[in-house]
Amino acid sequence: MALSGTSRYTIAVLVRNQFGVLNRVTSLFRRRQFNISSLSVSETESNEYSRITVTFDGEDVAKQQLVNQLYKLPDVCFIKELGGDDAVSCELLLIKMANSVDTRDEILAAVAGFGAETIDYSKDAIVFRLTDESRKIDDFIELMRDFTILEICRTGSVSLEKGSATIREDLDK
Question: Residue 57: which residues within 8 A CB-CB, separation 6 or more?
Fold first, then answer.
């Protein structure tokens, strides 16, 4: 949740797929005193590049200064701000719940209402998977807090620009 006077930003940073690049990028966030709320990193369609998607809160002027500093890193190739109606974003949640006769029906009703999937079922625990926007995942977790959560694992947000434009096209301009 963004603090008062700040906004939430999501940026995609296309970098050369080299040792130490992630550390250099995240160190800039630390030095600029941004708290990263979500981070995901993976190779792109080409093993030459990696894509770092970062969600963080801050002020617009400070965000722009951060982007300018990121461009000064030698392995940063291109940065794209994503958000609002121009991007598609999602996150993955795995949540392990206690499997109790007393609460099972309520949990399964909530799971169905949110469109989550059961991916593991045992006598003592059930694991569910939900892929959706971060806010919906937050809402699902909050609802599950009424029951016994055994473990949670969630990815960072991943985002792509809508339409046919790609971050690699922007790089080639």
Answer: 2, 3, 6, 7, 8, 9, 34, 35, 37
DSSP letter for 102, please: T
Residues 23 and 141 sit within 8 Å (Cβ to Cβ):
no
Q: Which pair of structure tokens corresponds to residue 91? A: 């996150």
Return d(Cα 26, Cα 31) in angstroms, integer: 9
Q: Work out the angle between the directed axes of helices 21-31 and 60-71 (0-180°, nearest 10).
A: 150
Distance CA 120, CA 62 (A): 44
Which pair of structure tokens corresponds to residue 73? 């890193």
> What pLDDT band is residue 120 in, cutting at 50, 70 and 90?
very high
Distance, in Å, from the CA atom of 109 to the CA atom of 133, rounded to the nearest integer, reads 20
Beta partners for residue 71, in sequence order: none
Report residue 169's pLDDT band, with 50, 70 and 90 as the boundaries: confident
Query: 59 — phi, psi (to 5°)?
Result: -95, 155
Beta strands at 117-121 and 149-154: parallel, antiparallel or unpaired: unpaired
State residue 127's pLDDT score.
98
